[in-house]
Amino acid sequence: MADITNSTFNPWMQQFALTGFPNGVDLHGFGVRAATFQLTSANLLALQTTAITLVAPPMLGGGITTPPGGYVFFPVQLLAEYVFGGTAYTIANADNAFQIEYVGKSTALLSMLVTGLVDQTASTQARNLATNPGPKISLANSANLGLEVKLIGTTPALTLGNGTVNLYLQYGVACMF
């Protein structure tokens, strides 16, 4: 491309300005990302009353134009890897589950039962995909909020155990115009 002048190349690239991709792919403001977090034994034992932020709220401002509706994160899938630590967790009831929610909200975006995962005497993994269609949530309760994990269900959810859980969350990002 050394023989193409800027006066020829720049107008050619301008045709792709709306998508940002020279092949014309339009993501409509969506992007896919991933977050990982290791829940320690202390985190797991306190998770029913102390949520853990997995994805921080988007940073706004700083010279970057924010879309009028803001940004919305939406979980796509969750992979949990239990690393057995010598003592399995005792689970209060079969309804106890990891639940992905918007920070400070209580609507389940994605959940995964912990029965069969952290109550095992060997390292185990589980995967759960978000349901389609997902819950309907107003922009006021979803825009520009991070994602957190809680442990829901019968109290106390987990007791005794000493293993860890590695969470791998795949999530999308939408620009709301």
In words, what does this structure look like?
This protein has helices spanning 6-14, 41-46, and strands at 31-39, 52-55, 71-83, 90-91, 97-102, 110-113, 124-129, 147-152, 158-159, 164-175. The chain has 177 residues and is mainly beta. The longest helix has 9 residues, at 6-14. The strands form three sheets. The protein has a four-stranded antiparallel β-sheet with strand order 1-10-3-7. 8% of the residues lie in helices and 36% in strands. It has a single domain, classed as Jelly Rolls (Sandwich), CATH 2.60.120. The radius of gyration is 21 Å and the shape is elongated.
In short:
This protein is mainly beta. Helices cover 8% and strands 36% of the residues.
Provide the descriptors you would attach to this structure in a database record:
single chain, 177 residues, mainly beta, Jelly Rolls, four-stranded antiparallel β-sheet, 10 strands, 8% helix, elongated
Cα Rg? 21 Å
Strand content: 35-45%
**Contiguous helical run count:** 2
Structural class: mainly beta
Give the CATH class: Mainly Beta
Distance between the termini: 36 Å
> How many domains is the backbone divided into?
1
Poorly predicted runs: 15-29
Order of helices and strands: HEHEEEEEEEEE
Which percent bin holds the helix content?
A: under 10%
Report the CATH topology name: Jelly Rolls
Shape: elongated
Largest sheet, described in full? 4 strands, antiparallel
Going by CATH, the architecture would be Sandwich
Mean pLDDT equals 84
Please tally the β strands and state the result.
Answer: 10
Spatial order of the strands forming the largest sheet:
1-10-3-7
